[in-house]
What does this fold into?
Amino acid sequence: MGKERFADFMAKATIKAGDRDHRRKINFNIGKYNAVVPAGKQQFSELHLARERAKNIKWKAIENLDKELENFEAAITRRGAKVIWAENAAEALEAVKKICEEKNCKTLVKSKSMVTEEIHLNAFLEKNGIESVETDLGEYIQQLDGEPPYHIVTPAMHKSKEDVARLFSHKLGTDPKATPEQLTLVARKVLREKYVQAEVGVTGANFIISDIGGVAVTENEGNGRLSCSMPKTHIVIAGIEKVIPSMQDLALFWPLLSTFGTGQRVTVYNTIITGPRQPNETDGPEDMYVILLDNGRTTILANEKMRESLYCIRCGACLNACPVYKNIGGHTYGAPYSGPIGSVITPHLQGLDEFKHLSYASSLCGNCTEVCAVKINLHELLLENRQEAVQGGHNTFTENIAWKMWKQAMLRRSWMNMANGSTKSWVVNSLMKGWKTNRGTLDFPKKSFNQLWKEKMK
It folds into this structure.
């Protein structure tokens, strides 16, 4: 299975890397992101200190994860919410199915949530006869097109406004030349009817607040608030690593997430949900369930070196900075989480044997670490994954032999000099499959620097 995934990854990467139209679209959208982020960062008088503080807060939360989650459960339960612990995706899906059956749910509205993509919630609900509607505009576009999200924050980043207009025309019968504003109004009309029809609303959680038992949701469209307040039942599905110790921490994390995610000082809608509708309240759901999902996170927690990856707040900055992501795109990774953070955590969430190749989809330039909102050493963790793959015996026999030969050659300069420039050029251009498919001929100099240096110094 690992070989099949690797072959699929290489095939998709080859196609996308040579697709100039794709590169134009994604570079245009990432360019707009790069233009506004510096302005957003101006709100921090000491940006590096803010990032360091955020990292320390997440370190504290993850090091005391069991206690923080228990505190959260106790606090939110007192206000009438029900907490469900799910060890894996199957348990989380079964819990959602049981709730939907109890509520006789036929239509479910869902705000943007990467963890629901992780467990493939939409496909599961469809198999069980429940309509699941994405309410975030980007996610709605992707759902109409039958595609998963392309990006953690901007699901339809790879689509131009013309692409979206054609899609809406085909699926909803709109004018193929409609403007983005007109298309937004069409989507709003369709989705508002779904809010009224839905028996259940599902959201994720940007942060789980331990001390008050709250769920913090950050968004720009208001669809998250409608999804959790209009249906009679609200289900939160959140990874256990989303916890932060105190509500006071949001004063740091909300601006960080907004700035590094979209370049804003703060997003338009920021909501803290602490339970279902209370006796003295007029709005909100009658029932609220919080599903706390493990699904491999405790495996990462047990790994002292990889534990740092659980600090991630899903701002997507590392994706926008990664030269590999900008060339091959989000869908090529074959997993819900793409880019550098996806390459780090996916092998541990879904199996090192099947996804070890993602850790090699990196230039190791370190730009991902440089832009990370909470200073995760992403490029070092990619190297850690590679080492674990080797130590765990996940490399092929041919690969192991090749690296041993390379090591022996690197330790003996005379061996390297035995292969002159012509030999090296022939090996790369003739024996290495795929090199010349999208590249020009590689010609090595006839003499190495080592040989030239010896001649010069005699």
